[in-house]
Input
Amino acid sequence: MSKGPGVQKMFDAIAGRYDLMNRVMTLGQDQRWRKFVVQKAGDPGRGATLDLATGTGDIAALMSRTYPYARVTGADFSLNMLKEAEKRFASSGIHWQACDANKLPFDDNCFDSVTFGYLLRNVDDAGKVLTEVCRVLSPGGRVVCLDTTPPARNLLYPFVLLYLKYGIPIMGKMIANDEAAYSYLTGSTMDFYSAGELAELFTAAGFTKVGYKKFMFGTIGIHWGEKP
Ligand SMILES: C[S@@+](CC[C@H](N)C(=O)[O-])C[C@H]1O[C@@H](n2cnc3c(N)ncnc32)[C@H](O)[C@@H]1O
Output
């Protein structure tokens, strides 16, 4: 069964508490990672940039603030998340668009950069979404992806695991009143590709100059690449 409908329903349900929960569970680090994403995407000048799975719009808004001439589109399939984004960044000039990352309603080669935060863990076929992203990017355009990664098995592993398995779901219950959504976050992180495997998927989807950097005890990865 496809993950899509369940994921859409889950984000529709937590949209109102999403930002607060993000700040708390990342110990206030989440905006720093988004800034890194925007910096890696680079300035598109007066070109077009897409923030896919934009959620409540943080990456799209940072993109718009950092590169004021850019034409920014924020896209997501959760209408409640998009409504929060529109409310938060009403005067930003960002174009908000409802769409599914598996089948983007955009022409080939029409964006100078595409970013996405916490998308690939939520789709059935990450390789297919990356191929679709590559299609809408113009040659030379950059992709930057922020997501969780399974923690490395090092000395810190037992502590990181405790935080992921118990800390995050408890916070999810207390802050977002939705323990299941945040248990899903932990489960989907543990089941997701390692940072190295994900980099290989970027290459297989057609990207070059692929690289990545890890953050927060290796539980967050930022990957980037370029369409040749
Ligand atoms: C964890 S939120 C991330 C939001 C935002 N990128 C951020 O940095 O906070 C994941 C978002 O991905 C969206 N999403 C998941 N699967 C999607 C798909 N197939 N198409 C479009 N959006 C999707 C969800 O609706 C949700 O808003």
Remarks:
- The first strand starts at residue 48 and ends at 52.
